[in-house]
Amino acid sequence: MARALSRRAKVVACASTGNAATSLAGAAASVGLPCVIFVPEFAPEPKVAQLLVFGARVLRVRGSYDATWELCQRACDRHGWYNRNAAVNPSLVEGKKTGGLEIAEQCGAAIPDWVVVSVGDGCTIAGIGKGLAEMKALGFAPRVPRLLGVQAAGARPLVDAFAAGRDLVPGSAETMADSICVGHPRNWRKALAAVRASDGAFVAVPDEAILEAQRETGRRAGLFGEPAAAAALAGLKQAVADGVVGRRASVLAVLTGSGLKDVRAALRAGGAPIDLPASDDALDEHLRERPIELAR
Ligand SMILES: Cc1ncc(COP(=O)(O)O)c(C=O)c1O
Q1: Is 123 in the pocket of ligand 1 (CB under 6 A)?
Q2: Do residues 73 and 15 touch, judged by C-beta distance below 8 A?
Q3: CA of residue 177 to ligand 1 center, whole Å
Q4: Is the dihedral of CA 17, 125, 123, 241 positive or negative?
Q5: Per-residue pLDDT tens for 11-20?
Q6: Ligand 1 centre from 125 Cα, in Å?
Q7: Residues 232-259: tens digit of each pLDDT
């Protein structure tokens, strides 16, 4: 937004599955700039709700995220709107570095062996990689962690490109993890380069493993991430099982988004509450049937 203002933008726009859009819409509202948001039709309702409350023009596109991105791209060209789209806006790519700077700053000498990040367009992992490398170059970090990129099994073009040692071939995208439901990652070159430079790896995980990871982060750590966030933990478990990440390695997994951003997925992971009348007898009967298990 600072960059948009310095360029005297009159309208800002982006395509997003919802999170980047929310940041942009909120920031635009705070400075009174009109904001046009293109979301794919599968964008979860809580994300859309936030955009609407921020007063953005929310255009819900009947199509994939990839088609939505291209529509926004053409609209920015045709109407002269400031374009915040993933990968094409250099300030966005540079801004994502903050993740790497903060990891190095907060970990200090205890910088982990691996940093795990879920990957859609590839801006986040490339930015974090760049931030970490710069902290090492500046002498603030003792070394650069290896990067583990995680994609969903149904949207895995970077996993395949990495494994084959080739450039990106765009593919299909089908996963419940909406934020990484990307078949044509726009920042693919930098994402592959960052992971390769760190001697890292890519891994793909099925949706069931993502749901399981969402439950596990909730139940074992008290952390509630949206599916794309929990994918990082699912990917880590997969990489450990594959022998890519050693069992003794120190690892930092970035939980990129709040679980409240996709309540429907959260309920799939968490299950249903138990309905009860307001009666002691009913409560006692329930507890007889299902006693509370005590911690060992
Ligand atoms: C919660 C969440 N996790 C991961 C990602 C992946 O980031 P990138 O598309 O830069 O790879 C996104 C992107 O929108 C996201 O919203």
Answers
A1: yes
A2: yes
A3: 10
A4: negative
A5: 999 999 999 9
A6: 9
A7: 999 999 999 999 999 999 999 999 999 9
